[in-house]
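Example record

Each entry pairs one chain with its bound ligand, flavin-adenine dinucleotide.
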Amino acid sequence: MSLELSADQKTLRREIVAFARRELGPGAGERDREASFSRELWQACGRMSLPGLCVAEEHGGLGLSPIDTAVALEALGYGCEDGGLVFAICAHLLACVVPIARHGRDEQRAHYLPGLVDGRLIAVNGMTETESGSDAFAMSTTARPVPGGFILEGRKTFSSNGPVADLALVYAATDRAKGFAGGVTAFLVDTDSPGFSSGQRFSKMGLRSCAIGELVLEGVFVPEGRVLGGVGGGGAIFAESMNWERALLAASHVGTMERLLETAVGYARSRRSAGKAIGKYQAVAHKLADMRIRLEAARLMVWQAAGKLESARDASLYASMVKLAVSESLVESAMATVQVLGGYGIMTEYGVERVLRDAMASTIYSGTSEIQRNIVARWLGL
Ligand SMILES: Cc1cc2nc3c(=O)[nH]c(=O)nc-3n(C[C@H](O)[C@H](O)[C@H](O)COP(=O)(O)OP(=O)(O)OC[C@H]3O[C@@H](n4cnc5c(N)ncnc54)[C@H](O)[C@@H]3O)c2cc1C
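Structure tokens for the complex follow.
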């Protein structure tokens, strides 16, 4: 079994890294300070089909396999210093576009996918509510059947891309008696629908160039043709989308961890203290060695989890394990990099503190570390 990238994968990686460095990196610090999302950069990503990496070519995507998508997202995380933008692309692709590509009817795919892939449309996934986060089925958003469709009432929160989205993938209870499996339905809601508004926009410690806010649904009519995957199928669609998000968002973190390692090693070689490079002090060198080991382990776990995504029965186990391990590794490596850079690690102009602030959210979104451990424990029969 070879773990080397193929020639095509190397080309894919090289092109995305070059694009991200050239077009997405400049101004990242300013966008972080101003908490501004850039639609122009989103459209530039669209010209590279990044919002639709694994979407079939007939809908404008690159038709990449999950493992090739991991290679591409790792390259994006490595080359792009704007962590909020990387997160926004991943949330759009993995929690919204993938479910439409995998469960949409032909008409839904033809209607939405080309724009979602080429940068014209931005999508948001709405599951979390103020009173239901980890316990997702405690949701109070409902969908009531009416002639020709459903009326949606409720309020979603912490929705990534919410304030700038054109399309919302909204999960609502259609039959409480059936529980999460069978009682939740996924709806494709155009954000210009009457009764839909974007509510509060949140200020955050990190990922500040990704706009996050509420989705407010006040008597929004959604036609029957905008139900994704059938009435009652929303729980399964959400669970599958979380497998994709957990496994492949982690790929972008691998890229970020590689960039952090290069920064930390470069600094440890050149910064001198008491007559020698700080990297010659074992206390510093061991931090860097641990960063390298976490990086290699993270990459292997991502490839393993990605390989399970399309059909394996235990895909959710591997997605939870990789999500947990890589998000916690990312936080550790970001903290180590700040420490190695000393005072410069704290100063905003070096960009390292921004990576740490961005990283902190990774152990919370897509299900917290505690929830991932619960899932792994369930697979152990506990
Ligand atoms: C940056 C960011 C982006 C996000 N994007 C989206 C999005 O696009 N769409 C969306 O729907 N949601 C999104 N979320 C919401 C995210 O999924 C939730 O924040 C997360 O699932 C946790 O829910 P909560 O915040 O309500 O915390 P809670 O569920 O209230 O948890 C609080 C604490 O209790 C712990 N806890 C809760 N239940 C258990 C349990 N059973 N066992 C052990 N520990 C437990 C948690 O681990 C946590 O430490 C986003 C969140 C963030 C931070």
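The chain is about 50% helix and 15% strand.
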